[in-house]
Amino acid sequence: MMENNQSVTVPRRILTSLLSSLSAGVVPRTGAPYIAIGRKDEIGAFLSDLETVGDGGSAMRFLIGRYGSGKSFLMQLVRGYALE
């Protein structure tokens, strides 16, 4: 999870990908942590679930929200953490 640091430098390759995705109106496949704002609690819950699953346990969550509330973005963000 990204820290609250005002001097974070986004690598040019990731920045280009982010801007391209956002201008096309799609969820970015890379670099999502750089633009994730206000999702600390949700990300923490999903990361806890990932740790539980990694230890051989199980977890299930339902993510609901209105159109445009960031569900797909949050899932892509968690997917990136899971693949790490």
Q: What is the C-alpha radius of gyration, as a whole number of Å?
A: 14 Å
- As a percent range, the share of strand residues is under 5%
What would you call the shape? globular
The count of helical stretches stands at 4
The parts where pLDDT drops under 50 for at least 5 residues are none
Structural class: mainly alpha
> End-to-end span in angstroms?
12 Å
Number of strands: 0
Mean pLDDT, to the nearest integer, reads 88
Helix content: 40-55%
Helix-strand pattern: HHHH
Please give the largest β-sheet: none
Can you describe what's shown?
- Helices cover 54% and strands 0% of the residues.
- It has 4 helices and no strands.
- The chain is globular, with a radius of gyration of 14 Å.
Q: Descriptors for this entry?
A:
4 helices, mainly alpha, about 80 residues
Summarize the structure.
The protein is mainly α and 84 residues long.
Topology record:
Blueprint: H1 12-24, H2 32-35, H3 40-54, H4 71-83
